[in-house]
């Protein structure tokens, strides 16, 4: 096996302050990121598809209570959990997404099922759950998503009537998770999943389920998964913007992302970050916040490099 | 007054067959399009904003039972009406959108209120209606949206278990409505509104409420409103794609749209059309279907042209 392959994941960007981070907590995050990246890497190493790799890496992050997605999802204003997710196949720019779903254990699995088994791209709310039932997607009850930590976050947010992304006053963090991968067949894929914002009202939809905003994959250029202040990522079409700069502006991945994250997003007040892989296996992980939980791992031809994996927070 | 200004509107694209069109019906469509375009034109002529012009033109089309938006919305599988709409301000790329709303008389008014009065871009379902109530948006009951014609369409669709965009067997039509405008201050705006698909299931969200897919406006380039097979418009980011080709590929409006409508969309099986205005007042209306209900009207410097308005179907 000598084809390049690579995977990158993130567990959200934001103000991750060293002062509020203990060694024990940091170890937990690093270990959760390592577990997720190794699950995806193994699939790629065994010759599996980038789609499977990003799906299983995101499932691993959704199952971890540390991240604001799946099990660790934050509470909405009404004390429920409303989750969004999306997945995209760079081979044929096919895509699937879910929004405002309440009782699905792994939203990314439902997004993939929509991509493969329906004529649609985005399904939302009760309708999406009806689709899930027909296709034997695993449900989970309110108890599964409950945690005291998230419930306390809601109470604080309710007191100040603020809408919070996943955070405390000192720890402003966008707790979305995501993965991008290049497989040995040369195919790219991307996936993103989120539990939204603490105290979220009014059926707000962020960038995560919006193809081109929070998630994009196209074998012609790159695969992207974003995390940040979703409204700004929608207005600038962040993920597709990187693709456009590469395809029509002849930017490389690195420069395209620098422009989007450090010029275009900040010009309208947007903060956050993204992870990306181009069709040559180059990985870029960039953000305009203080930190982003992230990791990458490369194999095949890339394995000859001195360093072939990395887990980072700040 | 000698600044250029212009507005264009559409009432959906698709297989509009002359064989199923009577003179009387054609007159009705032409008259409805004329009414809507004149409402928008008057606002621009009086020095009003492109935002007001596109909102009021779309309201006029939403109030007309001929088009699949607002009052004329088709029935979903469950016999209800689920509407989507969006609006975008080219000055500051601010945007608002609603999805899966049931009881709002004019979805475009709610989209604009979200843009101006919330921190969000997209609100959906019951949550969006809760927001609407707080901001005194006009509601309408089931009776308002009922028509025998639309109900019969649903019965036919249920019999064959097909998901239809607004059509009969002979008349396959995407009944979305939209407007784009350039005002005398040089600002662009775009808006789109739809009643979705007859027999629509599972809380499907199409391209209409997705900024960058069905609607986009940016003073740097152009304003766009799309109509067609929404899933393909999402996957190709149709509206933002035109912007990208102009901004990063140095295409002019005409060639950019030709590429998107006649190359990129058909390459994955997408059909439909769009209307657009660039920041110099050029209007382009293009589609890869047999027809698109459409009209444009120009004033100011443009008024010197021999022809300064046009209403077309085929």
Walk me through the structure.
The structure is a homodimer of 314-residue chains. The first copy, chain A, is α+β, with helices and mostly antiparallel strands and 314 residues long. Chain A has one domain (5-312): Glutamine Phosphoribosylpyrophosphate, subunit 1, domain 1. Helices cover 34% and strands 27% of the residues of chain A. In chain A, the strands form two sheets. In chain A, strands 1, 2, 3, 4, 5, 6, 7, 8, 14 and 15 form a ten-stranded mixed sheet that branches. A four-stranded antiparallel sheet of chain A has the order 10-11-12-13. In chain A, helix 2 (50-62) packs antiparallel against helix 3 and helix 8 (238-249) crosses helix 9. Mean pLDDT of chain A is 91; it is low at 166-171.
């Amino acid at each position: 096996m000598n084809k390049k392959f690579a995977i990158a994941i993130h567990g959200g960007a934001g103000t991750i302050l060293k002062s509020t981070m203990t060694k024990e907590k940091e170890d937990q995050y690093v270990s959760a990121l390592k577990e997720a990246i190794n699950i995806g890497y193994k699939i790629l190493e065994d010759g599996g598809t980038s789609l499977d790799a990003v799906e299983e890496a995101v499932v691993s992050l959704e199952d971890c209570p540390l991240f604001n997605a799946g099990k660790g999802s934050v509470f909405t204003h009404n004390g429920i959990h409303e989750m969004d997710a999306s997945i995209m196949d760079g081979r044929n720019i096919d895509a699937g997404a879910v929004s405002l779903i309440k009782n699905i254990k792994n939203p990314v699995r439902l997004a993939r099922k929509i991509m493969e088994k329906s004529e649609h791209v985005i399904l939302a709310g009760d309708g999406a759950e009806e689709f899930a039932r027909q296709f034997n997607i695993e449900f989970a009850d309110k108890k599964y998503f409950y945690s005291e930590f998230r419930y306390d976050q809601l109470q604080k947010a309710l007191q100040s009537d603020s809408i919070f992304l996943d955070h405390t006053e000192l720890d402003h963090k966008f707790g979305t998770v995501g993965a991008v991968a290049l497989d040995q067949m040369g195919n790219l894929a991307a996936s993103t999943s989120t539990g939204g914002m603490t105290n979220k009202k009014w059926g707000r939809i962020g960038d995560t389920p919006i193809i081109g905003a929070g998630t994009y994959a196209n074998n012609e250029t790159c695969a992207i998964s974003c995390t940040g202040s979703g409204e700004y990522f929608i207005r600038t079409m962040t993920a597709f913007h990187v693709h456009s700069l590469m395809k029509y502006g002849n930017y490389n991945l690195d420069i395209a992302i620098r422009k989007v994250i450090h010029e275009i997003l900040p010009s309208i007040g947007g903060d956050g970050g993204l992870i990306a892989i181009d069709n040559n296996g180059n990985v870029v992980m960039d953000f305009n916040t203080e930190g982003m939980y992230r990791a990458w791992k490369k194999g095949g031809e890339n394995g000859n490099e001195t360093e072939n994996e990395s887990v980072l927070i700040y």
